[in-house]
Amino acid sequence: MKVQRIKSEARFRGVGIHSGCPSEVVVTPSESPGLFFSLPGGVFPVQSAQTDGTARSTTLVFPDGSRVMTVEHLLAALSGLGVWSALLSLSGPEMPAMDGSAKVFSETLAPLCEPEGDITPLTVTREIAFGSPDGGYIGVIPSDTFEITCSIKYDVPTIGSQVFEGVMSRDTFIEAIAPARTFVLASEIGEIRKRGLGRGGALDNVLVIEDEAPLPSQVFRVPCEPVRHKVLDLMGDLATLGVPLRGRIVAYRSGHRMHLELVRRIRRGLLKD
């Protein structure tokens, strides 16, 4: 599989969407193939981290004890662009939210990409699937490409039932997935704040949805933006494998916890083959 590398530095500054803390991440070329994090205790490959998924984000816990919150959007941008060689250096406890999507990341990084060569993808050879008590489902089956079928269902007319299905090419990611923003139901905001989350959330980095429509100051960027953002999150979580995946993902009402459990099962079931 042909992959890309970052040829020069890119800096992203902002606030963490949950911590509200100022943050900067610098993406630079890596001397070795792979996605690496430069941390106080050293440089670690992404796959060396323990993953901690909540309903709202993914946190990586590295061997030196460092915790990096909300990594999914930048990792999705890298994997969606086909970049599997880069070094990430972060100041702050959480990745900057930017506009709540991967649009800024992908638009900035795309011109900095150059061919790296070939990498052997992790190829799915058998089905791995499971469900959740609330009716969610996620699984992966063999395929010659990297495909995603993702479905969501909300009891809110603005969202309802949505489906996205497609082969995840670089162009598809840039045009259809990267612009999709983090979204929240207006009715959920109070509870999220009570849990100490969303401290950096604002109308410029979160799509707020009421029962009948987004808030008047916001409109959907792309058709079925909520389900496309779920695909974005899924791609970022899968990137914690550290290598591209070849297979078809099918997800229904899944979230970060289920995505990361699938990653763990893929590691156990395929990397040992």
Task: Please compute the radius of gyration using only Cα atoms.
Answer: 17 Å
* Low-confidence parts: none
Mean pLDDT: 93
* Helix and strand composition category: alpha+beta
For the termini, the CA-CA separation is 20 Å
The helix-strand sequence is: EEEEEEEEHEHEEEEEEHEHEHEH
Number of helices: 6
Can you give a write-up of this model?
The chain is 22% helix and 34% strand. It is an alpha+beta fold and 273 residues long. The chain has a domain at 2-120: lpxc deacetylase, domain 1 (Ribosomal Protein S5, domain 2, 2-Layer Sandwich), CATH 3.30.230.20. Strands 11, 12, 13, 14, 15 and 18 form a six-stranded mixed beta sheet that branches. The model has no long low-confidence stretch (mean pLDDT 93).
In short:
The chain is of the alpha+beta class and 273 residues long.
Features of this protein?
273 residues, alpha+beta, Ribosomal Protein S5, domain 2, 18 strands, globular
Protein topology:
Layout: E1 2-6, E2 10-15, E3 22-28, E4 34-39, E5 42-45, E6 50-53, E7 58-61, E8 67-69, H1 72-80, E9 85-91, H2 103-109, E10 113-118, E11 122-123, E12 128-131, E13 137-141, E14 146-153, E15 161-167, H3 170-177, E16 183-185, H4 189-194, E17 207-209, H5 225-238, E18 245-252, H6 256-270
Parallel strand pairs: 4-9, 11-18, 14-18, 16-17
Antiparallel strand pairs: 1-10, 2-3, 3-9, 4-5, 6-7, 7-8, 12-13, 13-18, 14-15
